[in-house]
Amino acid sequence: QVQLVESGGGLVQAGGSLRLSCAASGRTFGNYGMSWFRQVPGKEREFVATISGGGERTSYGDSVKGRFTISRDNAQKMMFLQMSSLKLEDTAVYYCAAADRMYYNPYPRPDEYDYWGQGTQVTVSS
Predict the structure, then answer these.
(1) How many CA atoms within 13 Å lie on the side-chain side of 47?
(2) Which of 46, 48, 71, 104 is deepest in the core (most CB within 10 A)?
(3) 60 Cβ contact list (under 8 Å, min separation 6)
(4) Where does the pLDDT of residue 5 fall: very low under 50, low under 70, confident under 90, or very high at 90 and above?
(5) Mind listing the pLDDT tens digit for each residue in 28-76?
(6) How many helices (H) and strands (E) does the chain have?
């Protein structure tokens, strides 16, 4: 069983930066492909970024390429999302997710993930 806990969300002005963190439990953290998704009310969960179990491969959604960076620290069982040049449309609840049978998929779907955090709200203001 894996538990995921996000932190670091908040209110930020457009153009600003935030760093989200995801703390994980579990003995084989380095085997899990992990991702960030986000969701706004009334819309489907949107893929943001993904990283392979060892951290050597990453992929990003088109809307965040060049602005967001995903990383992980397997020794600390942590994953991060550095968000820069934030836009109003980045406002959402951000979720981290882990897949214990998927090391890496550059175009992941939410239904491929076994574990989810509770989410952290990111609000970008003008």
Answers:
(1) 20
(2) 48
(3) 48, 49, 50, 68, 70
(4) very high
(5) 777 889 999 999 999 999 999 999 999 999 999 999 999 999 999 999 9
(6) 0, 11
